[in-house]
Design brief:
Number of helices: 8
Order of helices and strands: HHHHHHHH
Number of strands: 0
Strand content: under 5%
Structural class: mainly alpha
Helix content: over 70%
Distance between the termini: 62 Å
Largest sheet: none
Length: 219
Amino acid sequence: MSLLKSSIARKVAMALSALFLLVFLLQHFTINITSVFSEKTFNEWSHFMGTNPLVQFALQPILIFGVVFHFVMGFVLEIKNKNARGINYAKYNGGANASWMSRNMIWSGLVILAFVVLHFIDFWFPEMNYKYVEFLPEDPNRYHHELVEKFHSPLRVGAYVLAFIFLMLHLLHGFSSAFQSVGFNNKYTSAIKKIGKAYAVLIPLGFIFIALFHHFNAH
């Protein structure tokens, strides 16, 4: 019984971290999409997020912890599930009971993890270097230019597009699964699944649009 409770606790913790990251992803997209329509608005919002002490020293560490926790817990659950089956993957007919997306969450997760590392290298590390290593004077108008510069390379844009396609696949299963894990199996289940599918498709497509827009409109 204790093992069952432990397994349930792990799944709930995984689901809660996923829901937290879904909220962050929506917020991140909301800011980034303004870069397409208004350089001024994007700079203002980015400057606020980049200089607000609450965001920098409270929310940002929580976000990093959430990302690390989600991926670590995902690997733990994958190992636990594999051991629980007690059979080799080659002999496991997963397609009989589960969708392709649910059976391959670990692989889509690994691609997304690789993208998160790339994203940190592209944006977070340079930002930390700018503010806390070189101590350069804050320029509230630098953010849009720095974003656009990253999308000049077709290889980087290709990597972003591929990553967001895998994110879409990951979310198509993960969104409804997260709500199910925290007990939302009720009359709202159908609506949650519809919202989840819309979120899983539209948000990654939105990020792909941003990358392609800046790539093809680079000066």
